[in-house]
């Protein structure tokens, strides 16, 4: 029982995330790339076992046989060698060199990137200037120069291609390492006494591995092309051995007599590189955390609604806001993980309802759903109705958008993250006024609103930026913006959690006054029973996405029905209680 209070309320059924492989297959182009690649690579790997003629056996009498000739499915080349056998053996060589070069470049480049990014200062300067020198030469010319120095041959072509690709890896990894090595968890590892090598290997390397894999998947196709390029020029595979590039190079002379001799290896290079690039794109999408979390998915303006039916209104007819059976779930791969399940409550005009529960219990998701503000994707409203003055706002997105700010005002938890940092606070309030089309001078209206929310010298503060105000002042600006559209319902989501205790009391006073003055209905979200006791007529206790108890605040405080409510109430210290409170908490923990 104690563990449940400390644990953030997880949904009852743990959502099963689809595996990386399933995500990859869900991308059709990548799946196609995977199929083509597996077929090509499989045939190439099995080439020695297949009943094929010797790829190097010449038969001048049989030269330049066309496609589909007897015994030679793909015909023969200018020395009468079987093209199919040469193609499969050549693909083997091209793949091996391309993958080998990628691995060498990845290992060396990652090493350079790790050391440069973590050590910083002169080590970084020296290593990065060396990398810059490599990058100063045209790519393929540098590879040609290296092979010219080392001498022609497949292994030397591999080294050359690996060397010219080191800068790409080094720069990518260095950037990722710099970002990671300033993180607090790395500082914590350093403070725990770990040496630099151990920090690099155990803390930073796991974080940059996805970057390495993504970089590999996007370069491997290139490396195969470059190997083919060097072999085409006669600097890679040496006769009689063949790779795809050298086959293409030797076929040049017969291009007009027997085009299929060039066409076959050319098509194989195209299919191989294309399949690897498609597959690489898919791997990148699966591994890149930014793409995976859906930041590149365009968010919808209002939360997606997919419900089977519309429930009857639950509250009394006079309710200003009536929520019945609201359920919200988050899409995770193919599944829907419920976060809010069948929540119902009603608020009468001028009434204050406290929504209380530990963090993660679904309070914010419930409140945001009222105005369709939960981000979609991934959120979906899976059931229920939200009625404002009898009208179901979930019925249409345009209805929901029209009500935002006009009927429902919203005060967020941390005003520093909700205010625009580069715009003066007065302009932001004026903008809110303008959006809601109030008449008169925007500036005067904004100053009046700021004054009403207790900002002293509002006219002078108009041009201040958010960072120039204290936390309490910023929250007053947030409240002024919420009031700009003259809503009759105000939702305040933990409006004082980011503030210290004395400022908290003043902001709550302000909300209380506004409520009385304007007859505002207030939905106050908090995790503090003390706040509810001082502010609200009724209270709804939320736990793990469900409301477990509702009632008059005084009644719930005096006789909590649910054991969870009792624990929340006991977590509020009473003045003068001292040690007894600590002992009670120890009993709970
Ligand atoms: P709180 O009661 O602290 O305001 P929230 O309403 O923010 O809690 O979150 C409730 C639950 O909804 C969380 O435990 C989390 O599992 C889920 N949730 C919230 N936002 C997202 C999101 N963007 N993606 C997936 N799950 C989410
Ligand atoms: Mg919250």
TrEMBL record:
InterPro entries membership: AAA+_ATPase, ABC_Ni/Peptide_Import, ABC_transporter-like_ATP-bd, ABC_transporter-like_CS, MetI-like, MetI-like_sf, Oligopep_ABC_C, P-loop_NTPase
Recorded GO MF terms: ATP binding; ATP hydrolysis activity
ABC transporter domain boundaries: 323-569
Short name of one Pfam family: BPD_transp_1
Coiled-coil stretches: none
Keywords: ATP-binding, Cell membrane, Membrane, Nucleotide-binding, Transmembrane, Transmembrane helix, Transport
This protein's record includes keyword Plastid: no
Membrane topology qualifier: Peripheral membrane protein; Multi-pass membrane protein
Bilayer-crossing regions: 29-50, 93-118, 130-151, 200-225, 257-280
CDD domains linked: ABC_NikE_OppD_transporters, TM_PBP2
Annotated GO biological process: peptide transport; transmembrane transport
Leader peptide range in chain numbering: none
Compartments, as annotated in UniProt: Cell inner membrane; Cell membrane
GO cellular component, one term: plasma membrane
Residue ranges constituting the ABC transmembrane type-1 domain according to the UniProt record: 91-280
Protein family (similarity comment): Belongs to the ABC transporter superfamily. Belongs to the binding-protein-dependent transport system permease family.
Name of the protein: ATP-binding cassette domain-containing protein
Protein source organism: Aureimonas flava
Taxonomic classification: Bacteria, Pseudomonadati, Pseudomonadota, Alphaproteobacteria, Hyphomicrobiales
């Amino acid at each position: 029982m104690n563990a449940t209070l400390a644990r953030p309320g997880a949904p009852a059924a743990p959502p099963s995330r689809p595996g990386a492989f399933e995500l990859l297959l869900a991308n059709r182009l990548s799946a196609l790339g995977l199929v083509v690649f597996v077929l090509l690579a499989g045939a190439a790997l099995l080439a020695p076992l297949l009943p094929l003629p010797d790829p190097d056996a010449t038969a001048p009498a049989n030269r330049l046989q066309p496609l589909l000739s007897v015994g030679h499915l793909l015909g023969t080349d200018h020395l009468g060698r079987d093209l199919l056998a040469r193609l499969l053996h050549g693909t083997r060589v091209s793949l091996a060199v391309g993958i080998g070069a990628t691995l060498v470049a990845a290992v060396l480049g990652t090493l350079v990137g790790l050391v440069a990014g973590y050590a910083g200062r002169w080590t970084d300067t020296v290593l990065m200037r060396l990398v810059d020198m490599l990058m100063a030469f045209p790519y393929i010319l540098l590879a040609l120069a290296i092979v010219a120095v080392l001498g022609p041959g497949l292994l030397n072509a591999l080294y050359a291609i690996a060397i010219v690709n080191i800068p790409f890896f080094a720069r990518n990894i260095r950037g990722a390492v710099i970002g990671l090595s300033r993180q607090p968890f790395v500082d914590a590892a350093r403070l725990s006494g770990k040496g630099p090598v151990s920090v690099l290997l155990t803390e930073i390397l796991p974080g940059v591995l996805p970057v390495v894999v993504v970089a590999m998947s996007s370069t491997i196709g290139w490396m195969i092309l470059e190997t083919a390029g060097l072999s085409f020029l006669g600097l890679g595979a040496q006769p009689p051995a063949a790779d795809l590039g050298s086959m293409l190079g030797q076929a040049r002379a017969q291009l007009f007599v027997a085009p299929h001799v060039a066409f076959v290896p050319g098509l194989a290079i195209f299919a191989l590189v294309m399949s690897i690039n498609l597959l690489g794109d898919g791997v990148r999408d699966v591994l890149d955390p930014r793409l995976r979390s859906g930041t590149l998915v365009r968010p919808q303006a209002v939360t997606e609604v997919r419900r089977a039916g519309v429930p009857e209104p639950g509250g009394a007819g006079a309710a200003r806001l009536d929520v019945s059976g609201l359920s919200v779930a988050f899409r995770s791969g193919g599944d829907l993980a419920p976060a809010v399940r069948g929540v119902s409550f009603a608020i009468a005009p001028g009434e204050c309802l406290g929504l209380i529960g530990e963090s993660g219990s679904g309070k914010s998701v419930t409140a945001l759903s009222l105005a369709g503000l939960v981000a979609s994707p991934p959120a979906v409203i899976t059931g229920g109705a939200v009625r404002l003055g009898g009208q179901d706002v979930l019925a249409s997105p345009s209805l929901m958008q029209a009500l935002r700010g006009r009927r429902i005002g919203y005060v967020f938890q941390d005003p520093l993250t909700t205010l625009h940092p580069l715009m003066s606070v007065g302009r932001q309030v004026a903008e809110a006024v303008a959006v809601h089309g109030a008449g008169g001078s925007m500036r005067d209206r904004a100053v009046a609103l700021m004054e009403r929310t207790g900002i002293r010298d509002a006219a002078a503060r108009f041009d201040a930026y958010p960072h120039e105000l204290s936390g309490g002042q910023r929250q007053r600006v947030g409240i002024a913006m919420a009031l700009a559209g003259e809503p009759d319902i105000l939702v305040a989501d933990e409006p004082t959690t980011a503030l210290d205790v004395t400022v908290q009391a003043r902001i709550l006073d302000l909300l209380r006054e506004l409520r009385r003055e304007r007859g505002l209905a207030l939905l106050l979200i908090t995790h503090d029973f003390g706040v509810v006791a001082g502010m609200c007529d009724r209270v709804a206790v939320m736990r793990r996405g469900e409301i477990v108890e509702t009632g008059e605040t005084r009644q719930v405080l005096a006789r909590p029905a649910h054991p969870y409510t009792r624990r929340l109430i006991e977590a509020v210290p009473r003045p003068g209680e001292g040690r007894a409170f600590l002992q009670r908490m120890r009993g709970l923990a």
